[in-house]
From TrEMBL:
PROSITE patterns: AUTOTRANSPORTER. Residues 691-966 form the Autotransporter domain. This is Autotransporter domain-containing protein. It comes from Helicobacter pylori SouthAfrica50. Signal peptide: none annotated. SUPFAM superfamilies: Autotransporter (SSF103515).
Amino acid sequence: MNDSGLNTAIKNLIRQKLGFWTGLVGGLAGLGGVDLQNPEKLIGSMSINDLLDKKSLFNTITGFISANDIGQVISVMLQDIVKPSDALKNDVATLGKQMIGEFLGQDTLNSLESLLQNQQIKSVLDKVLAAKGLGPIYEQGLGDLIPSLGKKGLFAPYGLSQLWQKGDFNFNAQGNVFVQNSNFSNANGGTLSFNAGDTLIFAGNNRISFTNHSGTLNLLSNQVSNIDITTLSASNGLKINAANNNVSVSQGDLFINASCVQPSDLTAPSANPCTLNANANNASNNASNNTQIALNNNDESLRVTANDFNFSGNIYANGVVDFSKIKGSANIKNLYLYNNAQFQANNLTISNQAVLEKNASFVTNNLNIQGAFNNNATRKIEVLQNLTIASNASLSTGIYGIQVGGALNHFGTINFNLENPQTPATALIQAGGVINLNATQTPFININNSMANNTAYTLLKSSRYINYNINPNSLQSYLKLYTLININGNHIEENNGVLTYLGQRVLLQDKGLLLSVALPNSNQNNAPKNNILSLSVLHDQIKMSYGNKIMDFTPPTLQDYIVGIQGQSALNQIEAIGGNSAVKWLSTLMMETKENPLFAPIYLENHSLNEILGVTKDLQNTISLISNPNFRDNATNLLEMASYTQQTSRLTKLSDFRSREGESNFSLLEPKNKRFRDANPSEVFVKYSQPNKHPNNLWVQGVGGASFIAGGNGTLYGLNAGYDRLVKNVILGGYVAYGYSDFNGRIIHSLANNVDVGVYARAFLKRNEFTLSANETYGGNATNINSSNPLLSVINQRYHYNTWATSVNGNYGYDFMFKQKSVVLKPQVGVSYHFIGLSGMKGKMNDAAYKQFVMHSNPSNESVLTLNLGLESRKYFGQNSYYFVTARLDRDLLIKSKGDNVVRFVGENTLLYRKGEAFNTFASVVTGGEMHLWRLMYVNAGVGLKLGLQYQDINLTGNVGMRVVF
């Protein structure tokens, strides 16, 4: 048997395969006695017994042997069986059976023995031998081998029946499975499986086809494999199971419930595998390249399971195409979906062309169009997440349109075929996310319309907004969008700011948000007489209409923009800051002053809600401050509070009941080198100092203060000097104070010089105290509004104004005395009259283009009558020291404004004077004291606090200074 043809064939096969894998498969080196570097030495002297001993080696090699190679071996084997040589006859009974059983299995051995006994099969074996193996026959299918006997049942009694009948072939290996330059043709469908313990390797040109019945292609490996197939074709659907592998097919045609009218060689590379036949039954007349496809309703489908699937061929489907189990992306060159097609995918890329016809169903999570996508379906197709149209790619659709759940990234061209006169109820392309357009593409929209009268279409619509990528500060940049919309082969033209269409002047409405043009009375563009074309490019949609009137149009408001872009919650938060006025302020800044009508939505698209709220707060705060007299006379109020604190301290000092009775102004003189005889105080030598010996008091203090009102805070620094004395039972005094102040309120900053001049007096009638005071305060203010925010910078300005305030106060109190009149509690009641005068204000701006934002108000004044209730506590320590605490509650009784009571700013007239003359209640407390420093000099200090209870108005002051008597 060593001289048989089979032995030679096997040796040639092993020599060929080992020669190829010598430098690639080092795993074979572990087989004992195998010299991979010298395959001739390995197999040159091998007998059949040697091969049987090395069957593990042979099995390893056959993991990389193609069906054609196996066919050659089987061919020689059959030749030896049918026409045995003399050498083979001697041991065929033993070694022949053993060889066939070992390498091909016992069932195959039984089948071959039976074949030799069956004369009906003799002709079949002759054809096998004439074909020099099973490879060519396997490619052509058994239908070509035995057409007269049918495709089923011939080998039913034999061991090969199931294998050949269905074309079920398995190529298994514990390591790698290598396929090179092989052809697999399953003429009756069936299953072709490649199973590798490690990876699948396809090299060279490998062609796989399934015909006549649906087939299954298994490409399985434990390790991730990148599988490249040259040609893959199927005539009746196909199931591909590649698990986690990546599959790439260079060419081929897959038919699902569809077929060529006259089939051609499916394995030949062709863009159009079908012969044209306009009279074919059930043919689609709209298929790409005029391909005529016969459709049927068989239970056929294309289902793919893989990680990535790249098919650079054609798919013709009138049934289910399920790519939903492709985990990564599916890249298809040409996809044709007919009436009953049902397509589903996760991430789909169309690299060349897709055509959807009639009632085809199409659903994918993400769609990337790199070529042309033509939607001629009579139902809306769905892209659940994002749709991308690449540069130089195109999307065409009719009135049934496309629903996009996420973003639409459009960098190519969209063609709208509006031949159906029906007006769709929804947008032709509706996106749930942002639509991003590249306006440099010319044109980015093509519209083919039969000019049906009184029809309107929403071409594009986003539930968020459309990003046009234009200059928000340029009207010309916005109007250019209209020139990039092609309508029946013509587009709007712009020349020196004038727009025309077909030579007719285009009318602009609402700053260009709506364009309209009366079409010429001609048959050009299929336009009827007096037909009007309307176009509208809005922040979230593009609309057009034809009819005998201009399209109905209501321009969007800023509220519409805010809700559409930032959401209803954003609008609620803006209104919570400044009410309806806040939206009006923003509308003035974003819409009324901008030439590009899309400035407002573009600004909202590119700025966060926190930024918008910050702008709103800056506006609201600035308007509130400039219209609030508590801001405008803030510095004078601080200075008055500091003066009041010192005034109370001086009145406390001179109101000592004992000094007025001649009992308290005394000094103790200790005789030098003398001792008291007795500790009895009555024996102490004292010398009284009469009150009229040093009746004059002169004092000076440094004062400071801080104010906190709604919207900002201020500080003040200055000096306070005064004189007073006690004349019989009357205290008389006066003072003058100066303070330099500053105030900061977000984007507003103010500096002021302030002067306060006042007098005070207190008269005593036994334990009754009557106090009067009056003061006049003047402030010169310089205010600057300055924001670095681009939106608010247009209101930057500066202005000057003056304030003057007159205050008159009357107070009555009764003294309750304790501890030998050294402790006094005095409840008190009084009234105060406060007059505020404000000069006119007129802002100055660097940019005259925004003069409508100049702040302006005329002179005005306000009168306030207040009721005061308080309690004062005084404590005197001997002759020289004291402290006091006075708590008071003030309530506005009357507020009267005169003159101009509004401030004009940012297009609004804002009421002045305590938020529209709102009454307030103030609580205040002042405390201070004095102690003797040296000879006729004293040091004193005081603190005052006054705060509004109805609205924020807090003043805090402090002073420290010295007093001398003479």
